[in-house]
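Hey, sorry to bother you again with one of my protein questions. I've been staring at a protein lately and its backbone has me curious. I owe you a coffee for this, so here goes:
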Amino acid sequence: MNTSSELSRRLVLREFPADDEVGAYAEARGWRYLGRTEQTEGESFGETIVEMTWEVEPDVVLLYVEDGLTWNCFVQVEAGDPERAEHLLSGMARDLDVIPLEELLSAVERERDPDELARAVNRLTLGAPPEPDDRVVARVADVLRHPEPDVRRLAIWAMLHTPWPQYRPLLRHVLATDEDQAVRETAEDMLATYDEAGVGEP
């Protein structure tokens, strides 16, 4: 890829896994399959990150990512021309079974099961737009008040997908007030990650 290439926003796919769906879509358009990689994130079954890539045209690559830990998968485009990437994403949003942002937002609002809520907030931040969205920030803030510490911790880790300055006040509040030490430490780690990445204040 060209060194000036950038990754586009993500489209979260409804089915997990969706490699067959995405593969068939790419094959039908004659895109050249570049390969598949797997990276194990943990010792327990299923905690594997799968990546598959296709060359759409010179300097334009389709990327499919499958996260076996959170049971979410998405596609995005790597390209030097953001308009070309957005054009491809628009076609995929129409032709693939993609979860729209409104549905991602409502899923976090209505979910009651802790495991499914953690998955939903992760999926929301994956599918969030590149620019800060107050609705997304509000949903993440709601999850940070969940009674289960593990759910709160996973909501903090989900902030890695969309490192917006608007998350900083939430993280500082968690660090100052959360009763669970592991949650506070996760917030502190995320703030340090934001510092290293140059994510400023809102």
Q: What stands out?
A: The chain has a mean pLDDT of 94.
